[in-house]
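Quick one: structure tokens for this chain, please?
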Amino acid sequence: MSKILVTAKQAGSVNALVEPVKELMKRGHDVVVYATGNEAEAKGFGLFNAGINKSPDYNSVLDGVDLLISGLSGTDTPDSQFIRTANRMKIPSIGVNDQNTNYAKRFSSLEDLPSAISLMDGSCLSTMLSQLETELGAEASKRAVVIGWTALDRYAAIRNGFSSSDRERLIKKLGEYSGSKEGIFFHATQNVKVNGDSNFFDYELKVTEKVFQMASDLGKALTVKPHPREEAGITKNFAERFGHAFLPPEACSTLDLILLSDSVTAGRSTCLTEACLLDKNTGGILPEIRDEELIGYPPVQINAIPYTQRWSEISDILEKITSANKQINAKLAENRKRFSVDGKASERLASLAEKIIS
């Protein structure tokens, strides 16, 4: 049995390590989880977390450890300090990436490189090489291993486990809200004020109105489910105005509705990630959103789904993802394979860990 230290600061890194922790524990390893972020960032570790320490004694924490598995939150974070200390102590390490960007902020020198770098897919390697200085990029690429999206493993089981009986149960539950004869075209709204930001609210409201209007012009009846924190009535009024079916937030979970749907559209929402992973025709409605803001939406970033950053192209996205054309649907399905999960990324990471310490 090996002693493995798992540590991360930022929430994204934490989420990428939770399932690997479970897998390593299942395999009988002594896993110590050590969070260095705030309570919100560390929350994902749950009961596995041994405690939060923002200024750890790195040498002491690493003493007696056979392997370090760390997030890659940045060179100025404890994640990188743990990796640098492990390198000095001759302890092997795995750095687990969770976003395909900002590699220069994760690795600024050879001392920052872990023994192995876990990447989500092949596109990450080319991005890493393009963002790092030549010598550093060459060495990093030698240590890179494509593992997959460890934070998203569960979606494979959700997708594969949704049966025809589950579908019938949901249709019966939703009744009149369960779509038109053409299909269930779900649009997710989020007309909320984030931290009192009226600009965010005004933008989302404009997106909602444009989507509803253009769908109506195309003769497409949407099924609309608002964000749970939306003010009552706003989205419902828009839906009624343009002839779309309004589904109350409490009617079902958003995940259930995605599973039931034939197509899903959304703006700046994790629904884009979920719908793509659940193999639904998915469209990103992102007018005026800058390229650098698309980082948080992997299926958009790697062109696994159609999306638009222009108001004038919203109808094109709606028409494409609700199309009955077999060739169009086959192409959409093929593109979604660029961003998919098989549910085994955490197993692959655990196997890599065992290979390194064997």
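The first strand starts at residue 3 and ends at 8.
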